[in-house]
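Dear colleague,

Following up on yesterday's call, I've attached the two folding results inline so they're easy to grep. Please treat them as preliminary; we haven't cross-checked anything against experimental data yet. The first protein's sequence and structure tokens come first.
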Amino acid sequence: MQTVLYSNGKRFDEKLFKKEKDFEKLAIENSKTLFGKNSIIIDAKKKIDSQFIGGTVPDCFLFDLSDIENPEFYIVEVELAKHSFYRHIFPQITKFFAFFKNTASQNDLIEKLHSIIISDNEIFKDFKSKIGSRELFLYIKEMVENSQNILLILDEEKEELPEIINTYTDTWGKMVKVSILKQYVNNGESILSLSPSFENIEMVDITTKDSDEEETNSNYDENFHLSNVLPSTYKLYQNFKELITQKIENVKFNPQRYYISLRKRKNFAFLKIRRKKIAVVAMMDEQKVRNKIKSHDVVSLSESVQKFYNKPCARIDIFKNQNLEEVVDLLKEIQQ
């Protein structure tokens, strides 16, 4: 359904794209706006031939360096929703799954991406300004190998996605993130909307409509979140969970697609398991969290993220088994 925005007395009509290349151009040319100042994008169709991704070329590659110690790599596919899901979108995304399972193809692409970056002065400077003295090739290699994400950008929702994502949890459910991009225009002026925003892409599931306020039946379990982590992270989670269950009576661990919520009457924290760490989003004012957490990193969350949770909150990054008690004591205080 075509929508309209009104701003400062002006009417902005939704632009309907007839050609996919125009929609792709919109996403790529506005990448810093859509994906944040700490993102770097490589226009794949201008730089990569099809041999690297199983005979197909994605629209672009996205490097999200907002967490420099845990960067994320995305294969980005921009599609018009009017295209057939099973004849066009499904086979395209399936080829990307195959790529992530093929070590030789990954190595070829890593070398190609490194070559592109060092030969493009603007992209190279952007990378070095963010990663500092880190060795570029190894940084890219670890990112591609350790973060396997596919970002599917559509102009409208696709009705097939909820069933596909909940059926193929280890591929579509784990790797594919979906955002809806729209452009609204008025006499040369333009407004863009991206839902969910990129900073919320791993919290808001627009396809399965997971709820943060209710305990839901889910096709996802703890093993889903722990399948690709380091052994040390797996052990860290088990120790952390054991301590939580000891100190917080009747607490429930409620795995959903993007997180494991901690629940007692209502959700009071969200665990996001990463390869090297556990990120704990605690429902408490950031300054109070900082006053209580001294042994782990406390990270500020943006206004958009705070709005999503509808409460003051902060993120605690846990990399080590030491001093887990202070985090659990804070969580106990929150749920009371």
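Below is the second protein, in the same order (sequence, then structure):
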Amino acid sequence: MKCEAPNCDRESRSRYRDGPLVCGLHYQRLLQHGTFDLPKKTEKVWATCSIDGCDNPSRSVAGTYCEKHYYRQYKTGTTDDPVFGRTYVASHGYVISYSPAHPISCKAGTLYQHRQVLYDAIGGGEHHCNWCAQAVEWSAKGIRKLVVDHLDNDKENNTIENLVPSCHACNATRGLFMSWVIKHKDDPFLSRLFTAANDNASAFSCDEVRG
């Protein structure tokens, strides 16, 4: 027998309770919704960003911020527009400055404070890695890229005395070395090695530390 649902040519499978003979599809609809028709879909209404003056849609139905203000809050701790000279600590621990007129700022007008401080102190152009004397430049890429090294490994200590130019290889290698030494600094020898590395990382040797 044919399904008794309107406009259905399928063969009936079973009787819905004391009701009509229906196919499997309409049986499930009756079971779930009590009708042959599918329920109308309710359109999701997306909210607007809660920041005054912003008409962008929120990131989700229940969200309060649009994409821009969400990530601004996440990265800077505030949804306010960038202010010239304002600094904040980013999620990775480095201090970010907003200085769009600075020669090495990015398109968004921001730059790392440690790069700004060292650039202002030593200027642009070519310099040499503090550890291996490799020629490095601010705008270069690869092995010639100038990386700013924190001598005490404190990302927020951006005094000029704590910053030196470095090549990427030396910066990465010293970072791994210092992390390993810090992890094992309870060892007497490594404790002296750690102190020597902090005081003058380019001038000590293992023989000098042991002595």
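For the second protein, one point worth flagging: Residues 201-211 have pLDDT under 50 and may be disordered.

Best wishes,
A.L.
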